[in-house]
Amino acid sequence: MSTTEQAPPERSVPKPELTDAEAGAKDFPGSAAESRVFEYFTPKKRRRTHYEDVTVDVQPDPMHYLAQGWGYAFSDGSAGYPTQWTALKAWGEDKPLPERYPGSGAAGYPWPASGWHEYRDPNGEWEQTIYEYNSDVVTQLSRNIDTARQTKAFAQWNPNWVRFVQNHVGAWMHVEHGLGTYVFCQAQRAAPTNMHNTVLAVNGTHKIRIAQDLALYNLSMTEELEGFDGKAHIETWKSDPVWQGVRETVERLTSLEDWAEANFATNVVFEPLLGELFRSRLVMHAAPANGDFITATVMGSGEYDYAQRDLRAARAMFELLSNDSEFGETNKATMQQWLSTWVDQCLTAARTLQPLWSQPDAKPGRFEDCLDQSKDRFIDLLKDLDLQPPEELRK
C-alpha cells in the first residue's frame, strides 16, 4: 500500500454498556475488591466463625429470600417456622412480609430481618463438634467402666449403695430420655431459626446420650454384681412414691407446645432445682463415700453437659429476649408467668425426693442444705435474665 492511500474508515459496531445488572455487580458485606470472602450476615465478633458459616441463616425465611413464601403448610394453615409457636417475641417479627413484584427476585428486609436472627450459641456447636464431643465422653466413660471391671472396683460398694444405684440412679435414665426425646427434639423443630434449631438439637443429643450411658452402665453392673437387678429401675420409676413428683414434672414438660417455654422450664427451672440437686448434690457427693468412684463419673458427664454447655446456650438465648429492644418487657412478663408455674412444680417434686438422702450408708449433706444451695444457684441465674425470684422460693 502506497503512502498516499488512506486507511479504511472505522466500522460502526455497537459498544457494550455496563448497567450493573451483570453477575457480581451487586455490593454485599465482604464483597469489596480487597476481600476474598462473601458474607451475607454480620458476624457476632470481628471475624465470622466456622459455626456461623454453617449455621447462620442456613434456614431460609420469607423475610429474606423466599419470594413466594414457604413451600408447605400444616393443616391449620401455619407454614414453615412460624414465630407464633412461642409467646416470646423478638424485634422486627411484627413487620409485614416484603412486597413482591416482577423482577424483585428474593429481595427482602436487610439482614437481620428480626431479633431472632441475632442469637448465637456461645458453645459454637455444629455437626462436627457434636460428634467429636459425644464421642470423647463415651470413650472416657467406657474406659472408666472397663478399668473398674478389671480392678474389681464394684466389689467395694456398700450393700445399701448397690440397691440405691440399682433403683434410683437407674430411674434417672427415664428423666434424661424423656427430656431429650420429647422436650428438646420436639422444640428444635418449632424454633424459628437454624441457630435455635441447632442448639436445641444438641441439648437433646446430650440428654439422650446420658440416658444411654446410664442404660449401658446398668447392664455392666448386672454382669459384675451378683444379685443386681437390672430391671428394678423400671418399677421404681413407675411406682415408687419418691419418684412420682419428678415423673409428673417430666411428663408435664413433655406436653408443652410452646418451644421456648419447654426450653425455659427445663433448663432454667427444672435443671437447677431438680437435675443438679439429684445428680450433683446427692449422687456425686454420696458415691465416693460409699466406695463407688465410677457412678460419679457417669453422672458427672451429664452434669457437665448441663452446667458447662446447655445452660450457657439457654442463658444466652433468654438474655437476648429479656433485653429485646422492642419486646423485652413483654418477654420478661411472660417468663415471670412461666416461673410462677414451674418453680412450685419443681420444688414440690424436689421435696418428694427427700427420703433418698437417708438411704446410703455414708450420707451426703442434709437435704435442706442441698436444696438451699440449689435455690441460691437458681436465684443467681434469674438475676442474669433480669427476672425476679418467685415467692415459692421462700417456702
Structure notes:
This protein has 395 residues and is mainly α. The chain has a domain at 127-386: Ribonucleotide Reductase, subunit A (Orthogonal Bundle). It has helices spanning 50-55, 127-150, 159-190, 194-224, 232-239, 244-254, 259-289, 295-322, 328-352, 367-384. α3 packs antiparallel against α7 (259-289).
Can you lay out the helices and strands and say which pair or pack?
Elements: H1 50-55, H2 127-150, H3 159-190, H4 194-224, H5 232-239, H6 244-254, H7 259-289, H8 295-322, H9 328-352, H10 367-384
CATH fold group of the domain at 127-386: Ribonucleotide Reductase, subunit A
N- and C-termini, Cα separation:
112 Å
| CATH class division of the domain at 127-386 | Mainly Alpha
* CATH architecture label name of the domain at 127-386: Orthogonal Bundle
What is the element string, with H for helices and E for strands? Answer: HHHHHHHHHH
- Structural class by sheet pairing and helices: mainly alpha
Number of helices: 10
Strand content: under 5%
Shape type: elongated
The mean pLDDT is 89
* Sheet with the most strands, sense and barrel status: none
CATH homologous superfamily descriptor of the domain at 127-386:
Ribonucleotide Reductase, subunit A
Q: Radius of gyration from the CA trace? A: 28 Å
Portion in helices: 40-55%
Q: In short, what is this structure?
A:
The protein is mostly helical and 395 residues long. It has ten helices and no strands.
Notable characteristics:
single chain, elongated, mainly alpha, 395 residues, Ribonucleotide Reductase, subunit A
